[in-house]
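Regression test case RT-17, inverse folding.

Input:
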């Protein structure tokens, strides 16, 4: 079975990033937006990133404009917003689709491995979060209403698990 870390994604600069660079790390993968009611979660995501990065944890942000056109900016505008407004230091990749026929393969995989309520696979809104273990397997999906700090115990558990 293919691991999340076997895939490649588009970098904000248009290049490609092989997710194997994150192999062996616990990942929190999030579809983000700059003009959403959940946008202040960037602060909590950054706090988690800073607290656990030295233990092998990484937050990966994927801007998406599929929900209410709440991510209208280009890569430079998104990067400036994240840096200037929330001092984001975790990687924010190229804007992607998370649903539909043009959905990024990463999100196709995440959705199939961690379906939502009643087995639904579609992502309902911005700031849906996926927790991935050190082996690249998707462990859990969290709703946009789930605050980053509410995931901390699950992150701790994966970071403390034997390798």
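Golden output:
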């Amino acid at each position: 079975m293919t691991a999340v870390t076997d895939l490649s994604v588009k970098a904000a600069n248009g290049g490609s990033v092989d997710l194997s660079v994150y192999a062996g790390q616990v990942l929190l993968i999030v579809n983000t937006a700059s003009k959403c009611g959940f946008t202040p979660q960037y602060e909590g995501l950054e706090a988690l990133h800073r607290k656990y990065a030295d233990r092998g944890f990484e937050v990966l942000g994927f801007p998406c404009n599929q929900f209410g056109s709440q991510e209208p900016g280009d890569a430079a505008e998104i990067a400036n917003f994240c840096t200037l407004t929330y001092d984001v230091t975790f990687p924010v990749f190229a804007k992607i689709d998370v649903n539909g026929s043009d959905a990024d393969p990463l999100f196709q995989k995440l959705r199939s491995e961690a379906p939502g309520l009643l087995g639904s696979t579609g992502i309902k809104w911005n700031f849906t979060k996926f927790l991935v273990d050190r082996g690249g397997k998707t462990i859990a999906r969290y709703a946009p209403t789930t605050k980053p700090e509410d995931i901390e115990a699950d992150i701790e558990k994966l970071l403390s698990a034997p390798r």
